[in-house]
Specification:
The complex is a heterodimer of chains A (235) and B (223). With 235 residues, chain A is α/β, with parallel strands linked by helices. Chain A has helices spanning 43-50, 85-91, 96-102, 118-130, 148-159, 208-215, 225-233; strands spanning 7-17, 20-29, 31-37, 58-64, 69-72, 136-140, 165-169, 181-186, 189-195. In chain A, a hairpin with a 2-residue loop joins strand 8 and strand 9. The N and C termini of chain B lie far apart (36 Å). Classes of the chains: A alpha/beta (235), B alpha/beta (223).
């Protein structure tokens, strides 16, 4: 018997707040998806709807073949439940020693999570989250506050996800994992820009570096730093 | 000139740093002391030893605009208009003048549509824009911005950077993880483990960071 693949389907979904609204008619299948949009366009609202934490005003969000869901909030402080780093890790059911080492916080077991810098707290929460395997992983602005080395590390970790659906909502302009599909919120509607690399030419929020490469006829194969540098060096 | 001498506070140790008027970008790894340095410059924290002076005065005797890296930690009031009015009210500006100044400031940042929206309903980027308006509305001498751009899309971040530059605030000091934005500053300071590893023009500082993750992508691609 064939096992149905994982997918999240949004049918005639609409979120409304005053004179602002967001509409989506889309299917997210297995792979890595990138969603971009302006400030206040509804990225976080859409992320919450996909995670089942915010009901649409109308329409349906259906998950198929998905047994586990996790969302990384834009604000890492919203995740904190432990009074110190040791107990914060344990609340995620992950090994504190290895997680704190991975997050560059070794030896700080008794520190309060809320005394960390925002970047350090983001590193900790993402390390706890990525130590586990989720069928649907939604990341709202995962790169914000991370330094460049950490952004690179996160891209590597996300690229290493071999299964499941990963949906990244971001304003990031320089660091991306290789992604399968690009989406964009514009004019209150979620638009599917398609698969890479053809999606790049339709991506209105593309970073300036990518737009410049395209203008010179050097369309990158994908959007990781390696892909961008390969395109830039192409003769 | 902002001068920092023989400064010690928590992990930050700076022997001698001078910051000229203009836009200064502070960059460095997470936990390198960027926020701590900005808090000292804003007078939110006082050094254990050493001095921070803004044109010869303590930061606490200077008009400072501040935006926290945690958007929710900027919020004191219920809606955006109240939030942006608050620095003027705290300074006992006549109520008749406050509305004009708040509306003008909101227009200049493009957030008049947020005026009556409850703060807790705003997106992360919108909260930061309101905090920025509250920091600018009383025309500070020093504007200190802790990673305000990490919540903004590239277009909006570019517009805001242009607007800040146009206002001619004497000192703008911002820390950022966006190296392209950092490179647009007059001066870049690279912090590592609480110390200034390098400070100077963007060209000088980024040249010294060639081959590291802190070298801007557009400089690598040179497109």
């Amino acid at each position: 018997m064939e096992v149905p693949g994982m997918k999240v389907s949004l049918a005639r979904v609409r979120a409304v707040r005053g004179d602002w609204s967001l509409s989506a008619e889309s299917v997210f299948e297995e792979g890595i998806h990138l969603v971009s949009g302006d400030v206040g366009s509804g990225k976080s609202t859409l992320a919450l709807m996909l995670a089942g934490l915010f009901p649409p005003a109308s329409g349906t969000v259906e998950r198929q073949g998905i047994a586990s869901v996790m969302i990384a909030f834009q604000f890492p402080e919203f995740h904190v439940t432990g009074p110190d780093l040791e107990r914060e890790c344990k609340s995620w059911d992950v090994d504190p020693a290895s997680i704190l080492a991975a997050a560059g916080l070794a030896g700080r077991n008794t520190a309060s999570p809320l005394d960390l810098s925002r970047g350090e707290l983001k590193r900790l929460i993402l390390a706890c989250m990525l130590a586990r395997d989720y069928d649907l992983l939604i990341l709202d602005e995962p790169f914000s506050s991370l330094d460049c080395s950490e952004k690179e590390r996160l891209c590597t970790a996300l690229s290493g996800r071999k299964r499941g659906i990963t949906i990244i909502f971001t304003h990031e302009q320089a660091y991306f994992p290789q992604v399968d599909r690009i989406w964009e919120i514009q004019g209150g509607v979620l638009h599917d820009r398609g698969r890479l690399p053809s999606a790049l030419c339709r991506w209105n929020h593309a970073p300036a570096v990518i737009k410049n490469l395209i203008a010179k006829g050097k369309v990158p194969v994908n959007i990781s730093q390696t892909d961008l540098l390969e395109a830039a060096c192409r003769t | 000139m902002i001068t920092l001498e023989k400064l010690r506070y928590r992990t930050v140790a700076i022997e001698d740093l001078r910051i000229a008027p203009g836009v200064t970008s502070v960059i460095g790894p997470n936990g390198s002391g960027k926020t701590t340095l900005l808090k000292l410059l804003a007078g939110i924290a006082l050094p254990d030893t050493g001095t921070v002076l803004v044109d010869g005065m303590s930061p606490r005797n200077t008009e400072i605009g501040w935006v926290n890296e945690f958007p929710d930690r900027n919020i004191l009031f219920g809606n955006a208009f109240e939030e942006i009015s608050s620095p003027l009210r705290f300074r006992h500006i006549p109520c008749t003048m406050i509305e004009d100044r708040v509306v003008t400031c909101m227009k200049s940042i493009g957030i008049t549509h947020l005026a009556t929206r409850p703060m807790q309903e705003l997106s992360g980027g919108e909260k930061v824009l309101v905090a920025l308006a509250a920091a600018l509305v009383f025309r500070p001498q020093v504007l200190v911005l802790d990673e305000y751009d990490s919540h903004l899309d590239a277009n909006r971040a570019g517009e805001i950077a242009h607007h800040i530059r146009k206002r001619s605030t004497p000192y703008v000091i911002h820390c950022t993880q966006d190296l392209e934005a950092a490179a647009l500053g007059d001066v870049v300071i690279f912090l590592e483990k609480g110390k200034v590893s390098c400070a100077g023009t963007p060209e000088d500082v980024f040249t010294s960071l060639t081959g590291t993750a802190f070298y801007p992508l557009s400089w690598r691609c040179r497109v």
